[in-house]
Amino acid sequence: MPVQVPKDKGIDRTLSIFLDGYEFIQKRTQKHHLDVYETKVLGKKVALLSGEAGVKLFYDNEKMKRNGAMPPHILNTLFGKGGVQTLDGKSHEHRKRLFMSLMTPEGLEELQKLTTRQWDAYTRKWEKKNKVNLFEESLELLTKVGCEWAGIPIEEKAVPKRSKDLNRLIEGASKIGPQYLASLRARNRLEKWIESVIHKVRQGQHETRKGSALNEMAFHQDLNGDLLDKQVAAVELINVIRPLVAISRYLVFGAVAFEENPEWKEKIHSNDEDLRCFIQEVRRYYPFFPFLAALTTKDFEWQQYHFKQGQMVMLDLYGTNHDPRIWENPDQFEPGRFRDYKGSIFELVPQGGGDYDTGHRCPGEWPTIEVMKASFSFMSKHLTYQLPKQDMSYSLREIPTLPKSGFVMKKVCNK
Ligand code: HEM
């Protein structure tokens, strides 16, 4: 007798995504100790996947595709139209190679150096300020790092405006009303700006560094040997700087983790292996991307559930990073768990899972880790500050979430 896979009965659960936030899938699958659960979102049957087995299925290219899966309001803001996230098969592999080609050891070392240099410059400015909001300041700091690394020219006075727009893409994508509209306008402004830079590069009016993201996106040829449409090239270049700026969220969570686990601030000061463990635990423990979406390519059975061709599937990233079948004491912050960790590519999934080249796993995991390394290392070795009274709690209902105060420091000193 086949087991009946549990379902949400009756009504549509779109609203529950807002109510349950990061725990929307986890609340349903983990309650039943299963990897699959059926619900209804926007009037359609959706299969929710979680856990290592769920991740494996989600990244099976024979059974899942991405084109058509992304809700339009996310495409219009966070990702933009025509980017690598929406491609499948050969065209995805070809475009993905473009991103992977940026991740050379020299490129990553350069990124680490740029990040340290900006931390030094920014903290000298912070010393003269009464109070510093780490989230707001790191948005600017990382905009400078991102543009410099990608080879995009940016004037000093434009940094606050561009960094706010890059953050609007992230914050407005899951909202409705004014915040969503602000995100749409931000995308419009950013694409126009980057399109004009790409135009100048193609016309020979701006010289680029070979191997830089700007150069590679401007001159990348698709499978027919044609240059990318200017708008698509802009979307892909923004696909490099937007997530680099988004690392600001991990920096704030890391600063909170330092406060709650001061012994780890000491440890990473002198030990690179501890620094690596701390970074992995920040990425596992704190909420960032809640879930991903795909569509099934055919009818098939999996764990006694019948998937229908064209059905929407959502993968639980936050819940998988907190799955008690994978992680001991998943809701405790314990960097030491990563000392001898030898997990599969389907377990630790803050930036997606599976294979980089053939699947959609984030090509920016190494750059993310490099930026976090440079930042946490700088913070633990050179930064002293005092903390005024503030609310560092964060809500799992809000997507994307962040400690409420943004982490405010006073009497900052770069020693
Ligand atoms: C994809 C998270 C940093 C570029 C993704 C995905 C997630 C993610 C969840 C989706 C994976 C999938 O669809 O299967 C993050 C987080 C970051 C981060 C939390 C750090 C805060 C970066 C950086 C870059 C980057 C630094 C570039 C330098 C991309 C691109 C994709 C992607 C281009 C699409 C890949 C594809 O569709 O094949 N990221 N990312 N990300 N990320 Fe990141």
The third-level CATH topology is Cytochrome p450
Share in helix: 40-55%
Structural class: alpha+beta
CATH architecture term: Orthogonal Bundle
The helix-strand sequence is: HHEEHEHHHEHHHHHHHEEEEHHEE
Unreliable spans are: none
From the alpha carbons, calculate the radius of gyration and give it in angstroms: 21 Å
**What is bound: which ligands?**
protoporphyrin IX containing FE
Q: How many helices?
A: 15
Q: Provide the CATH top-level class.
A: Mainly Alpha
Strand content: 5-15%
* Largest sheet features: 5 strands, mixed
Could you tell me how far the N terminus lies from the C terminus, measured between alpha carbons in angstroms? Answer: 68 Å
CATH superfamily: Cytochrome P450
Number of strands: 10
> How many domain regions?
1
Mean pLDDT: 95
Strand order of the largest sheet: 1-2-8-5-3
Q: Write down the overall geometry.
A: globular
